Amino acid sequence: MMFIDPHAHMISRTTDDYEAMAAAGVVALIEPAFWVGQPRTYVGTYVDYLSSIVGWERFRASQFGIRHYCTVGLNSKEANNEELAEGVMEWLPRFALKEGVVAIGEIGYDEQTALEDKYFRLQLALAKELNLPVMVHTPHRDKKRGTSRSMDVCEEMGLDPSMVIIDHNNEETVAEALQRGYWAGFSIYPSTKMGNVRMVELLKQYGGERIIVDSACDWGISDCLGVAKTAQLALQSGIPPETVHKVCYQNALDAYGQSGQMNEQDWLNPPPIDQRTVYEGNSILRGGRDPKIEAPGERRAGQMLIE
Amino acid sequence: MTETAARLLSNWIVAQVPQHADWLTQSLEGLAQGAPDRDLYIFLGLAPRKLGKADLVLNAADLANANAARAGWSPSGWSVDGAARVLALLTATSNRPFAERFKDLRRTSDVAEMIALYRGLPLYPEPEALDFEVGEGLRSNIRAVFEAIAHHNPFPQDHFDDHRWNHMILKALFVGSELSPILGLRERANLELARILVDYAEERWAAGRAVTEELWIPVRPFADDPAIRDKLADAIGKGHLTEEGLL
Description:
The complex is a heterodimer.
Chain A: E1 3-5, H1 15-24, E2 26-32, H2 43-54, H3 56-62, E3 67-72, H4 82-96, E4 101-108, H5 114-130, E5 134-137, H6 143-156, E6 164-167, H7 174-179, E7 183-187, H8 196-206, E8 211-214, H9 226-236, H10 241-256, H11 265-268, H12 272-277, H13 283-287
Parallel strand pairs in A: 1-2, 2-3, 3-4, 4-5, 5-6, 6-7, 7-8
Helix pairs in contact in A: 2-4, 4-5, 8-9, 9-10
Chain B: H1 2-16, H2 21-32, H3 37-51, H4 60-69, H5 80-91, H6 98-107, H7 111-119, H8 131-138, H9 143-150, H10 155-159, H11 162-174, H12 191-206, H13 229-237
Helix pairs in contact in B: 1-4, 1-5, 2-5, 3-5, 5-7, 7-9, 11-12
């Protein structure tokens, strides 16, 4: 089974992770621009970060046979540094049309401040102007209200819910997101967001329409195999393979493919020019062997469940 | 040279994607009349979206024209979008020096864009002013970016000093790039490079690794030089190398 991990901060991850992901069947991933764990204090640092995720990280992923896409945006935490935020907003349009940029994101609220609101709206306007999807990061605190508000603002700014992925959902937020017509992302992230056992229960309840599973793996304690492990657990729990295929592959492709920058042919039938230059091809696709959840080191051994 | 090259690029692109000729022509006219930088950024972003990323289809006459416009220029292996991006750079007018603009674009480029920017090197004005930018490209860890400068590109042969030239050859060996597509490999051979390459080969042999046969191309003219001839004889004695390999 092929997987897409539509939320993975690979800039914070090792080559072990890339190898493990490729071996587990991940053929493509999306790296959203995010808060790297400490605030950037210069606009230039932010510019170089965006440059890394459209260039270097894309190349690094390709060495492991994984197609790398990204989203660009000003995250909610750093939106609170007005000087930085103003500077980043000037540069964003230059990155939004780079190859492989599939959305504006991840944007939204953290503490739901006035500045967060200001830059969220400005970026929604940019996405609308460029006809790009949007990846919305919903807040960890005051989550339910913050999620509703994020959707209210998207609609106020004239975005079509089918162009917006509301990410980091949980049991409390998913019903409204789906009912209002949005894509609902779930980050299988230990301790703070969503475990895969809970995720399987949600799939039993909601089925696979417009639901997207991701790992959100980053610099924290997280699991880059979140998508593959959820898929495996779901199949073992009797979720139909078609549903697993939708939530671990097809829905992400449909949602972010609306950018015109992400196409299944990119990994199934890579153009010769890419094979010559950057993309090494995926050994699973080449050899047709079964994906395996196995990873170097004991860290992941026997850890099927992510709680 | 620049005007002829621009005309060739434009003709090739239009021949391949005639349905987008109007968009191309209008965009380029705007850029030629000093449109703001934002228009250039947008054109560079839209080029692959509008024109596609196919290889440029060129026949022998096209390649001969390219070589006539700029000696050594070989656009085989260029893509349609890459050609359009270089064409935009050649066409756009600005008060800013070319090298400054190039740096601005390179800083924010994605991989395909960076490859196109560097493939265009032989066609740009004020080549000496691009010295730093070329160094940045050579230092790239992305092999395809390095090769955009090193392979099928007359710029290094024409503009690199021996130090930069020699290190480009060495880096090519280190990253597993072929040497034969480097233009001027024989012409730019020098004793210092031959000495470095023989040392490199000895290091590889000591580690139980082989070296590419291509390595001997720039060594051969100096095979009899006292600086390296004993080492070469030693390598032949140990079976790492044959007499024929140096001919």
